[in-house]
UniProtKB/TrEMBL annotation:
It is found in: Cytoplasm, Cytoskeleton. Gene3D superfamilies: CAP Gly-rich-like domain, Phosphatidylinositol 3-kinase Catalytic Subunit, Chain A, domain 1, Ribonuclease Inhibitor. Residues 27-71 form the CAP-Gly domain. InterPro entries: CAP-Gly_dom_sf (IPR036859), CAP-Gly_domain (IPR000938), Leu-rich_rpt (IPR001611), LRR_dom_sf (IPR032675), Ubiquitin-like_dom (IPR000626), Ubiquitin-like_domsf (IPR029071), Ubl_TBCE (IPR044079). It comes from Calyptomena viridis. SMART domains: CAP_GLY. Belongs to the TBCE family. Supercomplex made of cofactors A to E. Cofactors A and D function by capturing and stabilizing tubulin in a quasi-native conformation. Cofactor E binds to the cofactor D-tubulin complex; interaction with cofactor C then causes the release of tubulin polypeptides that are committed to the native state. Cofactors B and E can form a heterodimer which binds to alpha-tubulin and enhances their ability to dissociate tubulin heterodimers. Interacts with TBCD. Its main location: cytoplasm. It comes from the Eukaryota. Residues 450-529 form the Ubiquitin-like domain. It holds the Pfam family Ubiquitin_2. This is Tubulin-specific chaperone E. Tubulin-folding protein; involved in the second step of the tubulin folding pathway and in the regulation of tubulin heterodimer dissociation. Required for correct organization of microtubule cytoskeleton and mitotic splindle, and maintenance of the neuronal microtubule network.
């Protein structure tokens, strides 16, 4: 803490106890003595007013009660980077004394002075600091870089720096620190509310080797990202969650090396904003949790075709959004490289009450998906999902103009829009037979449930599991459930069952397309799982 007010105090970040804020006013306040700081607090509950006092507006706040006045000696304006490093890693002067590097040592009653011990201690500190590769000074009140070139002389081997939740007020301060770290690869400056350049600035080589950058909760907007990105020629991962990003722009000649982009907790204007970043050539992972999007479309590709957008995208997270229509899930099949999807907590998932059926529908709709909501999709599970999908919507296909004879098979555009993968499933497994469709029950029908015990004879240490399953559930579906329930590695399951009515006899469940009731299984029977 300091009672001195820095000459550049206006706009600086300060802390007071555990609270953080920005100085919006420096000066006197009517009918009071001395100097005051007007602070807009990050947490409005810490404040008292909107920056006005007795009818005079001294500064403005975004929240009507987000500001207050404090004395300068209550404000912490922070320390330089190297001071914070030494304090965090126990390499400052006070700790040297504590561990016995004073200039004098007492032998009995005789005091012996060691000349030059200060310089020796300093050399030891330099050696220890130079060994540091990963440095974290999170919440250490870092506000400035310090003396020029001091960091490069002292911490020459740093590669990964965590500067999150400090008192950094501007991007220029970050550049001043990074420019002294020759091989900087990872930088986290999240939770620093700072000013970013609003116009094109001269290129800096400070981030020439940077691969991972976190700017979460920094109040950055997308135009500022693109301006700064001119200095990130090798960046591979960019984290921008919880900022003020609502609209996007096409990143021309920047971010072309990006493999991961996190835009979580930014309320995007609409799903079409994604088209503006759809041509990042190397983007493999896109995180869009809680971004407010309600639909996804790739209008450049028709039914059953692949889009030219997001050519390298393998992993997509769209959980906690407002997607209500299955058509958005259909659109995801257009992504040529998509392998992993997270989509929990979207309204479309409420349209199907049975969670197993819900998972099957998503798997059947996206042909190349290998991981859904962090669960691996095994080949047997995909086959079961696609066969069931083909059967469930078979009558709709017929009514829409579908036919077993390829010459007469002309399903309507409406059907293809709702089920764009249906023709390819018919090619893969054949058109559904009339006998299959006659026995189809609607998805919403509550079938009779069987209470079964699941055992693994080859793993006696694994406790039996009791599970309620519909008697109309196919063996293929049961296998898919057991893969996830028992966390069995990718291999072919062999199922059989034992019944009290068939003592000593084990019946194989050998036809994947038959329902449980085909085998006369009853509640209380035991299903045996082998692989």
């Amino acid at each position: 803490m300091t009672a001195c007010v820095p000459p550049d105090a206006l706009g600086r970040r300060v802390s007071c106890g555990t609270d953080y804020g920005t100085v919006r006013y420096v000066g006197s306040v009517s009918r009071t003595a001395g100097m005051w700081l007007g602070v807009e607090w990050d947490d409005p509950q810490r404040g008292k007013h909107d920056g006005s006092y007795e009818g005079t507006q001294y500064f403005k706040c975004r929240h009507p009660k987000g500001g207050s006045f404090i004395r300068p000696n209550k404000a912490n304006f922070g320390v330089d980077f190297l001071t914070a490093v030494k304090e965090r890693y126990g390499l400052n002067d006070k700790q040297d004394v504590q561990y016995g590097t004073e200039n004098t040592v007492v032998f009995g009653t005789k005091t012996v002075e060691f000349v030059g011990m200060d310089s020796v201690a300093e050399q030891q500190r330099q050696v220890q600091l130079n060994k540091l590769v990963d440095i974290s000074v999170r919440e250490c009140a870092v506000s400035r870089a310090g003396q020029q070139e001091e960091i490069s002389r002292t911490c020459a081997n740093m590669r990964h720096i965590n500067l999150s939740k400090n008192l950094i007020s501007s991007w220029e301060t970050v550049i001043a620190i990074a420019s002294q770290v020759q091989n900087l690869e990872t930088l986290n400056v999240s939770e620093n509310k700072m000013k970013f350049p609003s116009t094109s600035t001269s290129m800096s080589s400070a981030f020439s080797n940077l691969k991972i950058l976190a700017l979460n909760q920094t109040e950055i907007i997308w135009t500022e990202v693109l301006l700064c990105a001119q200095g990130w020629p090798k960046l591979e991962e960019l984290y921008l969650s919880s900022n003020n990003i609502t609209v996007l722009e096409r990143p021309d000649n920047v971010l072309q090396t990006l493999k991961l982009l996190d835009l979580s907790d930014n309320q995007l204007l609409d799903g079409n904003q994604l088209h503006l970043i759809a041509h990042l050539p190397r983007l493999e992972q896109l995180i869009l949790r809680n971004t407010g999007i309600s639909s996804i479309q790739f209008p450049d590709a028709g039914f059953g075709c692949k889009t030219k957008m997001f050519p390298s995208l393998r992993r997509l997270a769209i959980n906690d959004n407002k997607i209500s229509q299955w058509s958005s899930i259909n659109e995801l099949d257009k992504l040529p490289s998509l392998r992993s999807l997270q989509c929990n907590n979207n309204p479309f998932m409420d349209t199907e009450k049975n969670p197993e059926t819900l998972i099957q529908l998503i798997i059947a709709k996206i042909s190349q998906l290998e991981v859904l909501n962090n669960c691996e999709i095994l080949p047997a599970e995909r086959r079961g999902a696609e066969l069931d999908y083909r059967k469930i919507f078979g009558n709709d296909w017929l009514e829409a103009g579908g036919h077993w004879n390829p010459e007469k098979n002309k399903p309507s555009k409406e059907f293809l829009a709702a089920h764009p993968r249906y023709p390819s499933l018919c090619l893969k497994y054949g058109a559904p037979e009339e006998g299959e469709l006659k026995g189809r029950q609607p998805l919403t029908l509550k079938n009779q449930l069987l209470t079964l015990t699941i055992k693994c004879p080859e793993k006696p240490e694994q406790k039996p599991v009791e599970k309620k399953l519909p008697e109309s559930m196919t063996i293929q579906k049961v296998k898919g459930l057991l893969y996830r329930l028992l966390k069995i590695p990718g291999s072919e399951l062999k199922l059989s069952y034992e019944s009290s009515k068939l003592e000593g006899k084990e019946v194989e469940l050998d036809n994947d397309l038959k329902p449980l009731q085909f085998y006369s299984i009853e509640s209380g029977d035991c299903v045996l799982v082998r692989w």
